[in-house]
Design brief:
The structure is a single chain. By secondary structure, this protein is an alpha/beta fold. The chain has 6 helices and 4 strands; from the N terminus they run ααβαβαβαβα. The protein has a 4-stranded parallel sheet, with helices on both faces. β1, α3 and β2 form a beta-alpha-beta unit. The radius of gyration is 16 Å and the shape is globular. The two termini are 14 Å apart.
């Protein structure tokens, strides 16, 4: 079962500039509340095992998947694909889900230094975390619409790693 959360309340676009404006205009607290409510809704469905719920996101969605892990102690697994990372020890301490982080080694949005700090902090808190950094890959390297930065080989490997992670953690 999958559930995609509509953070933009029905607004859609294929224009990158408009998409950026939608993202900038997003109320972070409301968006977090929406993803938490979506996970609770999913957990309440009769055809869903509430103990086997995971979250995944790319870029902004990866950041919100990470925030869901902070705000939903029942989340079992989360895959963060080059999404903004929680930084405070208090937030990280609230994560109970197994974490898979997939990042680009040449990403200027979520830098390798930020990824290393996140991983080190999670390990210091004895949290379950796996991190894969693809050398030379930039932000959104898994996105085939990213004409200048798409890395099909790495994207395929990252997808396989994510599928394996969820199969193991949500079995």
């Amino acid at each position: 079962v999958a559930l995609a959360v509509d953070l933009y309340h029905g607004k859609v676009t294929t224009d990158p500039a408009t998409a950026r404006q939608l993202m900038i205009g997003l109320n972070r607290n409301q968006a977090v509340a929406n993803v938490v409510a979506a996970a609770k809704y999913l957990a309440a469905q009769k055809n869903v095992n509430a103990k086997r719920i995971g979250a995944v996101g790319w870029c902004m969605g990866g950041g919100y998947a990470a925030l869901l892990a902070v705000h939903d102690a029942d989340l079992k697994a989360v895959a963060i694909n080059y999404g903004e990372l929680p930084e405070s020890r208090a937030e990280l301490a609230q994560i109970h889900a197994a974490v898979l982080g997939i990042f680009g080694g040449a990403d200027r949005v979520v830098t390798p230094a930020e990824v290393q700090a996140f991983e080190a902090s999670m390990k210091a808190l004895h949290k379950q975390i796996e991190v894969k950094v693809y050398p030379g890959a930039g932000h959104a390297f898994e996105n085939s619409n990213n004409k200048s930065g798409y890395r099909p080989i790495e994207a395929k490997e990252a997808e396989a790693q994510m599928r394996s992670f969820f199969a193991r953690e949500l079995k």
